[in-house]
Amino acid sequence: MRCSRRALDRVFTGLVPVALGVLLSGCSSLAYYGQLAEGQWQLLRARQPVDKVIADPATGPLLRQHLQVAQQARVFASEQLKLPDNRSYRVYADLGRPYVVWNLFATPELSLQPVTHCFPIAGCVAYRGYYQQGAARGAAALLRADGLDVYVGGVEAYSTLGWFDDPILSSMVGWGDERLATVIFHELAHQRFYVQDDTAFNESFASFVEQEGTRQWRAARGLAATEAASGAQREQFIRLVLASRERLQAIYAGPLDDPGKRLAKQAEFERLRREYREVRDRDWAGDRRFDAWIHGPMNNAKLLPFGLYDQWVPAFSQLFKDVGEDWLRFYQRVEELGRMPIDRRKAQLQRLMPSPGKSQR
Question: Which GO terms label this protein's molecular function in UniProt (predicted)?
């Protein structure tokens, strides 16, 4: 299936399987196919119209409030951001669990190249999704036994690229009204346009729509461009991780033998932790929101979602400016990029990237 960003400051969680394309895949094992089909079917059966849930006297006041604001954001998405106008996120499903799916990422021990999985419609993606945490952990254990780096992350949002009417999930409503709106923008962007076999393009595009859409959503309600400090911290953290990824790439491509690369890999992770603590204590007044992630077990696979979500966001931001911040013209240009061969597409995106030191809104 397709994927979405997580609540923990939208930095590192992963993608969700893209529904029908995956369900029809003949390349998955029977067990994997079965759990995808069962998980999707449970979601379809659990959906209810949001208006019905809001009107139900048994609905709690907090859930009712979240759903009301979500519907306002849903209208804004179609009317102002020119995102698809359909029944997605106008239905609700109570999951009874904290995550809709658990995504499994894997890389070789001495490479940041993801292990990919290819499906019809969705194309090749850098993860596999599991509807049960135990199944994801079991699959991770098998890959780890084969010498791969693995990372499992829970995902709270879900998209099927428009094949089904995607619901607001119970796992999403605890985020708060604004975060719920931003996920709707992100996932509808995937419905608006999606390119097979280019996860970084798809996620960066949807992440830009999410960020710019949220800025406009706040402005439309007369709210300041808030979370400036929080957003700056998040971006600073992402830059630390991406810089670490680049250094790891150089290590793996370098002349060291495998034992030397293993030592350099661990030294790089310690450098990342040290630089994080320095930035946190110097600039963030001791804010420790990322401590659990940075001090947990570290490997290549854990770093994968950063590059997938953020690599081309500045390029899409520049493209949006180039078309006068006109959403329809922006989507037209995005579609033109998406139709290019992947090497040419990447070259065009690279030309749109800001030079070092150039400010981005």
Answer: aminopeptidase activity
pTM of the model: 0.78
* Residue from 118, 173, 172, 314 nearest 235 by CA: 314
| The pair of three-digit structure tokens given for residue 221, joined into one six-digit string | 């309600």
- pLDDT confidence band for 317 (50 / 70 / 90): very high
- Say which amino acid occupies 48: Q
Look at residues 55, 292, 261, 13 and name the one whose alpha carbon lies nearest to residue 154. 13
Residues 213, 320: Cα–Cα separation, whole Å: 12
By C-alpha distance, which of 334, 341, 335 is closest to 318?
334
- Measure the CA–CA gap between 54 and 66, rounded to whole angstroms: 10
166 pLDDT tier (thresholds 50, 70, 90): very high
- Complete DSSP assignment for 33-60: HHHHHHHHHHHHHHEEEHHHHHH-TTS-
**SS3 for 274?**
helix
Q: Whole-angstrom Cα distance, residue 301 to residue 287?
A: 26
Torsion of CA 203, 207, 208, 211, to 10 degrees: 180
Using the structure block, give the residue that is written with the tokens 């077990």: 297
Res. 258: pLDDT tops 70: yes
The mean pLDDT value for 49-58 works out to 97
